[in-house]
Amino acid sequence: MITLCLYQTSNDPYFNLAAEEYFLKNFQENFFLLWRSQPSVVVGKHQNALAEINHDFVNSHNIPVARRLSGGGTVFHDLGNLNFTFIRNVEKIQEVNFKIFTFPIVEALKTLGIDAYTTGRNDLLIEGKKISGNAEHVHRNRVLHHGTLLFNSQLDALKGALKVDLSKFEDKAVQSNRSEVTNIAPYLPEPMGVEDFGNRLFSEISTQIAGSKVYLLTETDLEAIQKLSDEKYRTWDWIFGYSPKYRFKNKFQTEKGEIVLQLLVEKGLLVEVEISGAISETSGKKIEEVLLGCRHDLHAIESRIVIFQDVLHAENISPEYFAGKLMK
Is a pLDDT exceeding 90 seen at residue 32? Predict the structure, then answer.
């Protein structure tokens, strides 16, 4: 079976994730891909996106949030992080094995003087610190396996974007396991940039694979991937609306006492809203009614409650502050 090898030039996280799905579902050949994305937070398919990200950090740094096709935990991408993808046809479910796909990565790193190894949690480590998280998705007789490789990633940004308070969320979504991480670059015997590292890795792994052939995207590929990116991967419905059902609870103090906020969210929409505590019952009920069916999204909530700014100001609460407490 021919394996098509592609070093993706796009740094658009939505395009890159769409490309994986496109190759998985529209080809019969095996694939090996390398790619990088601009700073972005990528949640697993079965995660609650809102519960996985630090809203203040992500918003202040204009970091986009994306959802991938595979399960597993949330990861941070930037141009110092290299991502690899294997897509392979399988005959038996036993062939869906993480080590089959991490082995060539470990071997390629050895040629660069890096002593990396796998763990039972499907990570790659150097001296006990994580350099790579991996996940898989099976479609019919094809498996997609991908992982990160932290080369010279901004680790402070990674930690800032993924620092969250899960105590406000109650759900059955897959939660991320936070591990101590490190970059590959400091462990190299000889310094090199991420571009050289990517080129060396691509050449080494492509050589390892029998029947490999370098593949270049066609105009048809580009148009199809862009369409999938625009119609699925960039959409709020996929990124946030796909999150499993969850409950959100928060409380805050006002001059009159404590206000408690409780939400039930399904497909990203507020299906139950309960506001209680130090707020008039009439005001609380009015706000509850107008929020039903609203997206659990800061701008959407702000646009709904702006009509109650006089009511909230009477309670000495700003609409912006109130909306923020419904999010984080």
Answer: yes
Q: Comparing 97 with 255, which gets the higher pLDDT?
A: 255
Domain count, the chain: 2
Does 171 lie in the same domain as 27?
Answer: yes
Cut 0.85: pTM above it: yes
223 and 261 belong to one structural domain: no
Instruction: Give the number of other Cβ atoms within 10 Å of residue 198's Cβ.
Output: 20
Cβ–Cβ < 8 Å for 30, 3: yes
pLDDT of 176 > 60? The answer is no
Q: What is the CATH number of the domain that holds 303?
A: 3.30.390.50
- Whether residues 157 and 24 share a domain: the answer is yes
